[in-house]
User: Fold this.
Amino acid sequence: MPEALYSLILFAVVATATPGGATTLATASGAQFGLRRSIPLLLGIAFGLALLAATAASGLAALLQTLPILEFAMKLAGSSYLLWLAYKIGGAGAPRMNDGEDPAPIGFRTGILLLLLNPKGWAMALGAAASFAALASSALALALIMAMTFGIAAITSLSLWCVGGAILARKLRTERQWRLVNILLGTLLAASILPIWIN
Assistant:
């Protein structure tokens, strides 16, 4: 049992730390707003992943596998949402230089939606639930273990990505540098959609 739990923790750490849509969004938010103002987004993503992992472990996510039209609709909605976020990030300038306004950071609800509309996240959660089902004797216990493991792993790794973005922001001096970095981050976020459609 402890070996299986360690394996789940390692799986969750690797899954949440590798580059993707959530990590790119955390980095961009860290660059634009710093860690403190990005906390609602990071908590939303972590909560969304915990909820997704718990749902997968409880067996409700099997619905996605039996209804291909639902999976396609989620892919379409998730891709559209990520493209909108990529556009917003790619078009941003330096913090507080956008028409004299102080833009609001992306919030908790957006973080949750990012995960719940991400078929790649569902596939990862389903795979983890199937692989580590022996960790608990009931679906509820497995859902709690999965939610805690993925939630903690996500908030930890996303905080590191966010801090990385904040450190990067200290190196940027001109509006042109900010625009280039934001275009790069927006492009990376848009590119994170490709694995959703390539099966």
Q: What stands out?
A: The chain has one domain: 2-197. The CA atoms of residues 44 and 108 lie 4 Å apart. The radius of gyration is 17 Å. The mean pLDDT is 83.
